[in-house]
Amino acid sequence: MLLLSTTTRLSAVTAHLFPTLNLRNNRFLSTMVNTIEKATFAAGCFWGVEKVFFKHFKQFGIETRVGYTGGKPDAKNPTYRQVRYLIPLAFILCWLHISLSIPRLYVRTFAMKQQVCNGIGNHAEALEIKFSPEKVSYEALVEFFYRMHDPTTVNKQGPDEGPQYRSAIFYHSVAQREIAERVTAEVQEAHYKGKPIVTTIVEGDVFYDAEDYHQQYLEKNPHGYEVSLWVVVMSYCVIG
């Protein structure tokens, strides 16, 4: 009776100190809440980066946000706006009737960013991913990052040029940094011999969410990269 009482008290104390320990089968129960981590990448236009990452990993429950990061400390709260001095040029083109034969243009040629696009703040267009390591590994995200863009071009992806389109990995822990460095070395050796990868691996900085209309932009606007010159001009007149 004394032994039973002592065992009962010991079990109660053990259960209090180690709530996840199952004494019956002597193993830990999986009662922990899924840990959510953060990954941040820059690989060109954030519209496309978000689209391909979300399409590839949505079955793993990731959450994505596009925004700006990696800028100068004193350049806070960058915004995305049309640069007004380009609009008179658009009207000149219309006046010359060039617009009648101009093909569909990249909206980003005229819809540019204050601070971000003109280089004042030196921010990069970036994608922030929230993910569960139990469903998808950080290593898998980094490997996909290298597959979905060209990491050997300096400040350029496709037709988009400028420091805001640079290739970068913003790590949020020592473990992430080590994984990013290792995967980068492996990709360099396996796929880019003689052509150096220019991706920068830097510590994560303040991440500024882009405006709401940029979030999942290409999901909402499948042809969002292209727009006629007249639409750009009229949009400017309406938006101001």
UniProtKB/TrEMBL annotation:
SUPFAM superfamilies: Peptide methionine sulfoxide reductase. Residues 38-83, 114-226 form the Peptide methionine sulphoxide reductase MsrA domain. It comes from the Eukaryota. GO terms for molecular function: peptide-methionine (S)-S-oxide reductase activity. The keyword Membrane applies. The chain crosses the membrane at residues 85-106. Coiled coil: none annotated. This is peptide-methionine (S)-S-oxide reductase. It comes from Jimgerdemannia flammicorona. The lineage of its organism: Eukaryota, Fungi, Fungi incertae sedis, Mucoromycota, Mucoromycotina.
